[in-house]
């Protein structure tokens, strides 16, 4: 009997044991509590951090616009001669600092000195010609006065001859005078009238010659003006053989060598005004809505990490960069894909910062604009009416 019941009892025991989970140990419970605590702390940290960042962004961060598409620039001046010739003297070396008016190079001036001397001689010749014409005009004035005197004398003689002719004519009618004397007075009158016509013609010729001389004098004046202009141009060409620095700066990109033959307009070197460097930052069009001149900018330079420079927005470009490209995009044709455009913003650097003097055009920087720092518009003054 005992042997028949034992299998059933064992089966019940096995079934009972498999129908219930084993009891949890204390170690397992502590691990679960610790895990929950860590998750709770992590969730609280994420919530606090997210809330703090959101608060910071709402109060501060959303007012800042940043771009790393920014490069330093300067208004470099290309040095090129205005006249051709051999470079007789080179006064500067690469990366040399120069002041405005310093001599950079000299072109052989001998040809231009010769042209200058020739222009001076031509001007003197034209002035001598004008002086000669002036002397002829003065001489012609005397000739005109002499001819006028002769005409006046002839007029007086004609008047006297007319009176004589009338007197002898009256005497001949009364029988007192002779016909021969009347004929003689008539002949004298005709001769004196002819002399008067001759001297009047001479006076007209003298006056006409004066007009010719006046015309020649005007031509001489025009020649003098032309020779004066030629002399001025020759002097300019001679002066241009000395090439000077137009601004203060540093010599760069020097390609000229002493003894080299250069043509007018040939690029010799550049002068970079390193004390007038500015920043051009290309902001996205979605970032420029609240930008305006006068806002403060924080500038981080890649070459000098950890050394920020303050700046101020000087101006915004009148168009996006694409508008000033060599081949502007034409969106009216073909398929259209919208691309965020960038607007160049010119930023003036703080001249009081010692780091500004060490900067060079072309360096990459990161610019951050504080759009809250816009200058307040000045209120117009209200003047009270005086009673």
Structure in a nutshell:
It is built from four helices and 14 strands.
Description of the structure:
This protein is an alpha+beta fold and 387 residues long. It folds into 4 domains: 24-59; 65-75 and 273-327 and 336-373, Elongation Factor Tu (Ef-tu), domain 3 (Beta Barrel), CATH 2.40.30; 77-104 and 242-271, OB fold (Dihydrolipoamide Acetyltransferase, E2P) (Beta Barrel); 110-239, Orthogonal Bundle (Helix Hairpins), CATH 1.10.287. The protein is built from 4 helices and 14 strands. The longest helix is centred in the middle third of the chain and has 65 residues, at 110-174. Residues 1-20 and 381-387 have low confidence and may be disordered.
In spatial order, strands of the major sheet run: 1-10-13-12-11-14
Q: Which sequence of SSEs, written as H and E, runs from N to C?
A: HHEEEEEHHEEEEEEEEE
**Biggest sheet record:** 6 strands, antiparallel, barrel
Which residues sit in consecutive blocks of at least 5 with pLDDT less than 50? Answer: 1-20, 381-387
CATH topology of the largest domain: Helix Hairpins
The Cα radius of gyration reads 53 Å
Indicate the percent of residues in helices: 40-55%
From the spread of the alpha carbons, the general shape counts as elongated
Instruction: Count all strands and give the number.
Output: 14
Strand content: 15-25%
Q: At the first level of CATH, what is the class of the largest domain?
A: Mainly Alpha
How many helices? The count is 4
Distance between the termini: 136 Å
CATH architecture of the largest domain: Orthogonal Bundle
Derived structural class: alpha+beta
State mean pLDDT (0 to 100 scale).
83
Q: What oligomeric state best describes the polypeptide chains here?
A: single chain
Can you tell me the number of structural domains?
Answer: 4
């Amino acid at each position: 009997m005992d042997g028949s019941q034992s299998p059933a009892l064992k089966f019940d025991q096995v079934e009972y044991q498999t129908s219930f989970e084993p009891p949890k140990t204390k170690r397992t419970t502590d691990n679960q509590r610790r895990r929950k605590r860590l998750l709770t702390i992590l969730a609280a940290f994420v919530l606090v951090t997210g809330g703090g960042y959101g608060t910071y962004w709402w109060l501060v961060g959303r007012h800042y616009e940043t771009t790393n598409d920014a490069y330093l620039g300067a208004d470099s001046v290309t040095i090129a001669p205005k006249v051709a010739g051999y470079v007789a003297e080179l006064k500067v070396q690469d990366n040399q600092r120069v002041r405005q008016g310093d001599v950079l190079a000299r072109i052989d001036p001998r040809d231009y000195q010769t042209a200058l001397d020739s222009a001076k001689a031509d001007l003197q010749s034209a002035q001598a010609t004008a002086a000669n014409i002036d002397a002829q005009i003065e001489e012609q004035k005397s000739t005109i006065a002499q001819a006028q005197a002769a005409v006046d004398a002839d007029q007086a003689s004609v008047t006297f001859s007319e009176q004589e002719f009338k007197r002898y004519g009256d005497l001949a009618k009364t029988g007192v005078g002779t016909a021969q004397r009347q004929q003689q007075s008539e002949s004298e009158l005709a001769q004196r009238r002819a002399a008067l016509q001759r001297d009047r013609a001479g006076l007209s010729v003298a006056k006409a010659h004066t007009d010719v001389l006046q015309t020649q004098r005007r031509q001489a004046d025009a020649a003098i003006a032309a020779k004066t202009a030629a002399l001025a141009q020759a002097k300019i060409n001679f002066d241009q053989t000395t090439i000077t620095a137009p601004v203060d700066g540093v010599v760069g990109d020097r390609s000229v060598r002493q003894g080299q033959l250069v043509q007018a307009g040939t690029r010799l070197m550049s002068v970079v005004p390193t004390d007038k460097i500015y920043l051009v930052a290309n902001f996205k069009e979605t970032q420029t809505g609240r930008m305006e001149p006068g806002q403060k900018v924080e500038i981080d330079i890649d070459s000098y990490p950890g050394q920020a420079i303050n700046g101020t927005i000087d101006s915004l470009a009148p168009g996006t960069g694409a508008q000033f490209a060599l081949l502007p995009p034409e969106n009216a044709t073909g398929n259209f894909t919208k691309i965020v455009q960038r607007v160049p913003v010119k930023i003036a650097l703080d001249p009081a910062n010692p780091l500004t003097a060490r900067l060079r055009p072309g360096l990459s920087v990161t610019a951050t604009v504080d759009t809250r720092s816009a200058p307040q518009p000045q209120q117009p003054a209200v003047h009270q009416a005086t009673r």
